Amino acid sequence: MTVIVNPPSLLHLVSTILLLSSLNLTLAQTTGFSVELIPGDSPKSPFYNPMETTSDRVTNALRRSFSSVGRFKSSFVLTEWAQSDITVGSGEYLMNISIGTPAFDTVAIVDTASDLIWTQCKPCSQCSQQVAPLFDPNQSSTYQLITCNASQCKNLFQTTCSSNNSCQYSINYPDDSYSNGDLAFDTITLATTTSPTVSVLEIVIGCGHNNGGPSKERNSGVIGLGGGELSLISQIGSPIAGKFSYCLLPTSEKNESSKLNFGSNAIVSGDGVVSTPLIKLSSPTFYFLNLEAISVGNKRINYTDVSFGKPGEGNIIIDLGTTLILFPSGIYWELESAVATQINATRVQGPEGLSLFYDAKTEFVIPNITMHFTGADVKLQRLNTFFMVLDTVTCFAFGSFRQHSVYGNLAQINFLIGYDIEKKTVSFKPTDCSKN
């Protein structure tokens, strides 16, 4: 049995971007469902490499964090609609989806800092050369409108185009990854964990027929959960009431999967829940929070970064696709000093990119670290603040990167984290995610 969901109208998007027929306006009643969220280095992942060592996975995670954060540059935020990082490695999460009718099964990276849903497709051949800019050229848009011959353009699913008009997209990423292809309407089906499958009709997806970069063999696609019009959250719309949540398992739980919840299943409530405003700035894609301070034991470090906007208006992005917690250098070094002062252990060398490592052969006590978001104090556990890079070496999970701040997924482990787009809040609840 399959539950069918028609997304709300994208008339503005259709008329100004796709120039295709309007969507079905019929909406299903608000519903809730959950899907499996697979860690990229789990044996359940099609990209799992049993030959990789812990050190290899850490190296991948560090590369992942420092390359992905480049997409948050203000110039990039203002000019790109569809953003994602297509390098698969430690620290990423995957989701199984089916596209088209009959359905074609595939797997893609889940990314809260992306909008576009895209997957690998075969090239669209012998298309018309009539090309026109989609937006004002002064906006430096990478999108172009192209007109194709429907009988000649076939995608991965061997079906002809449903319209003579299609929209071409082109995305370039800081780590030199890229995806180019055509936007189209199709049906996607999600395999839920406890209920019938859910199909979303007439959803806008990207068929990438020219993709590449550092991990070209692994760039199967992206499922964007960002705040823009093209994301899965926005396109499903009213049936899930703008709600989604997830509970990330510790990295040691390699044979288990986390859950990604939608609609009524995504409500975060009960004892211990704290909520903070969800702030939208220059880009509709990214989820900004406002961090007021960080406490290390009894020492409070006021957080004054305004690289994304004005004081109190959002200064850190919460991102499922970045591994580390990244701060501008000045704030990071003050934080590291406060942590190191309160730890009685032997410092050692570790992988390049981070600086605070300890010999883990002997157990030691770490100070309590609390993130003071506006209206929400989030007390981190040891697994959120330190992680093993070798069998005998543990590393501080915070890093320094230029001017921007990102709240990565290590800090989110064993928290049920809920996004409510309509109420504009993000909620945190300490949770044993293995039991959630």
TrEMBL record:
Q: Where in the cell is it found?
A: Secreted
The biological processes this protein is annotated with in GO are:
proteolysis
GO CC terms in record: extracellular region
Q: Where is the Peptidase A1 domain?
A: 93-429
Q: Write out the entry's keywords from A to Z.
A: Aspartyl protease, Glycoprotein, Hydrolase, Protease, Secreted, Signal
- Entry GO MF terms: aspartic-type endopeptidase activity
User: Which Pfam family, any one of them, does this sequence belong to?
Assistant: TAXi_N
Q: Which residues form the signal peptide?
A: 1-28
Family annotation (InterPro entries): Pepsin-like_plant (IPR034161), PEPTIDASE_A1 (IPR033121), Peptidase_aspartic_dom_sf (IPR021109), Plant_Aspart_Prot_A1 (IPR051708), TAXi_C (IPR032799), TAXi_N (IPR032861)
Family per record: Belongs to the peptidase A1 family.
The record's PANTHER family line, in alphabetical order, gives:
ASPARTIC PROTEINASE CDR1-RELATED, OS07G0603500 PROTEIN-RELATED
Q: What is this protein called?
A: Peptidase A1 domain-containing protein
Query: Whose protein is this, by species?
Result: Gossypium schwendimanii
